[in-house]
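Help! Submission page says 'invalid entity' but I think these are all valid:
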Amino acid sequence: METNETITLKKLINSQSIKIENLDVYIDTQHILKDINLTIPEKSITCIIGPSGCGKSTFLKTLNRMHDETPEVKISGKVFVDDENIYDPHVNVIDTRKKMGLLAQRPCPLPMSIFDNVAYGPRIHGIKRRKALNQTVIQYLQYVGLWDEVRERVRTSATRLSIGQQQRLCLARGLAIEPEYILGDEATSALDPLSTKKIEELFIKLKEKYTIILVTHTLRQAKRIADYIIFMYLGQIIEAGPTEEFFNNPKKQLTRDYLSGSFS
Amino acid sequence: MRRLRAVKDKTARYFMLGIAIFTILFLLAIGLSLFFKALPIMKEKNLWVLLTSSDWKPFKGDFGFLPFILSTFYVSLIAIIIALPFSILTSIYLNSYASKTVKRFFEPVIDLLSGIPPVIYGIWGTLTIVPLIANKIAPVFVEFSSGYTVLAGGIVLAVMIIPLLISIMVEVFRSIPKEMIDASLSMGATRWQTVKKVILRKSISGIIAATVLALSRAFGETMAVLMVCGNITQIPHSIFDACYPLPALIANNYGEMLSLPSYESALMFSAFLLFIIVVLFNGISRFTLNQIEKRYQF
């Protein structure tokens, strides 16, 4: 029998980690993800790499249950976030998503002002007091280094920002819901090198507080910022491990072929 | 050989330009011919009196168009007030909530609805809406109503423009990038929050454009409205009064009593008036739409 004490202890140990057991994902009859078993370490950057169509983005979407929006997708298996299987019927999808800040491939500001974009998350989760909102918005805009660039025009449309600024805005917007995890789906692939660098630096800064999971297309980026690498191919995890070990001493032939550029 | 191809290309281009200009000329031709036909009455009477007087006694030579103009606006206004919430909510449902099966069922039905001839809507209105108003709705508010009223016209017209509004709005909502909706949902917003704060906000100019189109259609709709709105020359004081919109006036009287030359010209004037209302309305709303888009470039 478990006492309350042991349960809390267990929670402490496993807090902020993601554990995946026997995850299978089908889209219609296509088997997209095949028997994924994985633990993602907390407060670090985990990069998922692999050729296009290997299921990276599909995998990322299973973590914040964005597949709920597409009825063709069938999911079996368990995804434990903070010790709770998010595919358990009693779990509220909103609570799950609130824990995950998502950064999409291309920045997608909402059709409102810069301020309202960052305040969007807090507002939908019920924060109304202007003072609190102001504080949150400024705090996160400062965090992503955008505040000094936009302080004069926070009330103007977010679409007039440059693409790089927009992506940092989206990051601030995601952070404002106070997530525990940050998911990035090729978050820098639409950006110029300078903006990419800024985002990468932010990720490194963010991993002190957050667990970050990034899908990336560029091996160099993974090398630069990742602590752990997951290599996927045709819906399966081929190899996973700490970055250095993965790049210097890959264990599988398939990994070696991919790293040497035999296929991409 | 090469030159021949270039010549052909040029010919095709200018030929099509000519055809395109022709369509614009139609508009001009209609406007001009109505204008010249209406000219006699405009010379005979003061234009201001024509527009603001409510005396309509063709045999005495009194032509006041105010009742017809107001009737047209009232009926169209009622129609749009009823139709807008209906079609916005339906299109939101179809866009954001409905499953593929439901969509596959709804969309052809809506297209079918917009293809039904107006006269059928008119008959349906006469058989169901008019008695419903006369026996059930109006007695709650007023002592007596025949049922042939502004409200009846508005309801029938609303039913007619709803399919048009829905099919445009579904397109407007569909054009919103999926990433934007996902961005909202991924932050833990519910569908309804996403609809209110992102989808409606993003499509405001599209909704206005759809409304304008529907209103233009409503101004001009003749048959169905004529059959249910009573056709009594008066300024309606409530939605339970009969009214007489401009298109009904023309359709009912053109071809009769044209022995009176000023009467014919008066009818032409009302046609010209309707034409101007629609053109002006379109122009003004296009302008406002531009302003809105400029100011709220989101």
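Support: the input was valid. A stray whitespace character was the problem, and the output above is from the cleaned input. The two ends of chain A are 51 Å apart (CA to CA).
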